[in-house]
Amino acid sequence: MDYSKLVNGGLARLKPYQAGKPIEEVQRELGLSDVIKLASNENPLGMSPKAIAAAQQAVVNCHYYPDANGYYLKQALSDKFGYDPACLTLGDGSNELINLIFQCFANPQVNVVLPELSFIVYPMEATVAAAEIRTIPLKDYFIDTKALLEAIDDKTRLVVLANPSNPAGTALDYDTLKDFVSKVPESTLVVIDEAYNEYQTTAYVDTAKWIEEFPNLLVCRTFSKAYGLAGFRIGYMVSNAQIAALINTLRAPFNVNAVAQAAAIAALNDSEHLHKVVQVNNAERERYAAYCKQQGLKMIPSSANFVAVDFARDAQPIYQYLLEHGVIVRPVKGYGLDTILRISIGTPEQNDKLFALLTQYLQENPLK
């Protein structure tokens, strides 16, 4: 019996998502003790000490189910950003929220508009829903909002874009983004995935506040990146209250665990740690730009906590060389970017090691 014939939508056409190699796997496979991971866009400075303390305290009561509605976390988000708690949905990372949005709104009768090189989860979810996927080319790795608008018709249910984007790292300026949202028909939902939102260098604009003007806007965020809670898997979505109620109806009970909720509340209230994380990241991002310029490499302009570097040759041998020397980065062949490696920005010491290894490789293997 071929059970793939029984699955829903286009699931049988998909391949499992390939996460970045964990440190333990590389240590085991290559017999290395000193391994650094610059592959999954994690926060190398770790979570706030206040979040660690809150998580440790919350563990004591983990024989009870968590608050299914996340009352205190929603209140903390309301206090910090001014959101109406009725407009908030909590998720097992922003990834689950994206999944819920597609479950709720995508189907074989509608189409979904996505920029080229979108986070691979978006087309995966659209495929499972058997929705038509319209992929719109980028302009020099930036999202082309004019082309996105031209692709929308009366059957377009969702437009999903990440800002900053992944795996490119580019970001639209807020004026361009708001102009785009204002021109999308109200019957088409616009989903902005802001996983890397805190790392932007431009003057901050809270796009979630636009929901009062544009009720078809949904903004997804995560605590996995700048807040350093990747292992806890927690994120949130801001939308109009009706959409939040629909998504919350579909959401599994107790989807966000009690320890994650406690850690997220504490992380939100530690602005000093977040500021340090962003400051270190953005300074090191400038170092990457300077290094690539020195080495004659093209780095795609990044507003995130990673960079995409074009080596103008097959990047797989470079990836393998770094791996064998204890540095894990991310090949992006799955996106058709054979010459590019996506590199998460580490601590200054970790980046020093990467630069030294890359310099050595490039000297020993000059581009012909």
Automatic annotation (TrEMBL):
Signal peptide: none annotated. It holds the Pfam family Aminotran_1_2. Its cofactor is pyridoxal 5'-phosphate. Residues 34-354 form the Aminotransferase class I/classII large domain. The keyword Amino-acid biosynthesis applies. Its EC number is 2.6.1.9. Gene3D superfamilies: Aspartate Aminotransferase, domain 1 (3.90.1150.10), Type I PLP-dependent aspartate aminotransferase-like (Major domain) (3.40.640.10). Transmembrane segments: none annotated. GO terms for molecular function: histidinol-phosphate transaminase activity; pyridoxal phosphate binding. GO terms for biological process: L-histidine biosynthetic process. HAMAP family: HisC_aminotrans_2. Belongs to the class-II pyridoxal-phosphate-dependent aminotransferase family. Histidinol-phosphate aminotransferase subfamily. This is Histidinol-phosphate aminotransferase. It comes from Candidatus Anaerobiospirillum merdipullorum.
